[in-house]
Amino acid sequence: MSGWDTLRQECLDCRRCGLADTRTQVVFGVGDPQAEVLFIGEAPGAREDEQGEPFVGRAGKLLDDMLAMIGLSREHIYITNSVKCRPPENRDPLPEEKAACAPWLQQQLAQMQPKIMVCLGRISANELIHEDFKISQEHGQFFHKDGVEMMALYHPAALLRSPGKKPETFEDLKALRAKILELCTHTPLAF
Ligand code: URA
Q: Domain 3-181: which CATH class?
């Protein structure tokens, strides 16, 4: 088994926090583990918990549309969450759940070594970019950290609730596309 497959299998068996008792399954991630661009959401919801894949509900459909707007598709990137199991009733993950889960994402990052990381929403930006990240002020800006270009977009679920934010997000997506064209060597764009 490859290092990635071993990591995946270990993660699928994880019982490091209480979410192991309420989840249907661990949602490890989807896409190309050798991708240069990694998208990171918050935590799986009900549909993701059922299907074992991140962003398959309504927010996921919008994420696919956002990717398509800049010529990207799921198969050429990797998508995961900072917490791999669904919190019951979609509550926010507890600090101890986030802490128990963080090493899985750190190991995914260590193996993937992405060039660009895109945080979906404030929660993953707080965790990965800086701890007092203000999504309304800092979305779309690039931060260079640990050799990786990082940015945050509004979470697709927030865009479903506040469609007025979509034009700003389109600008952010165009900036992401420009960064991909600048830095990436094997991330196919449809146009
Ligand atoms: N919201 C997230 O943050 N992640 C998912 O996988 C689905 C919805």
A: alpha beta
> With a 6 A CB cut-off, is 59 part of the ligand 1 pocket?
yes
| pTM for the whole structure | 0.98
- The residue whose CA is least distant from atom 6 of ligand 1 is 54
CA–CA dist 40, 121 (Å, integer): 9
Distance of CA 160 to the CA centre of its chain: 17
Cα 171 to ligand 1 centroid, rounded to whole Å: 22
Q: How far is the CA of 41 from the centre of ligand 1 (A)?
A: 5
Query: How far apart are the CA of 43 and the centre of ligand 1, in A?
Result: 5
At 35-63, the pLDDT tens digits run: 999 999 999 999 999 999 999 999 999 99
1: pLDDT strictly greater than 90: no
Tell how far CA 54 is from the center of its chain: 8
Q: 110-128, pLDDT tens digit by residue?
A: 999 999 999 999 999 999 9
88 token code pair: 């019951």
CA angle, corner 37, sides to 102 and 175, nearest 5?
115
Give the separation between CA 79 and CA 39, rounded to whole angstroms: 5
Q: Using N-to-C axis directions, what is the helix angle for 166-183 and 58-69, rounded to 10°?
A: 60
How far apart CA 166 and CA 3 sit, in angstroms, is: 38
Q: Where are the domains of the chain?
A: 3-181
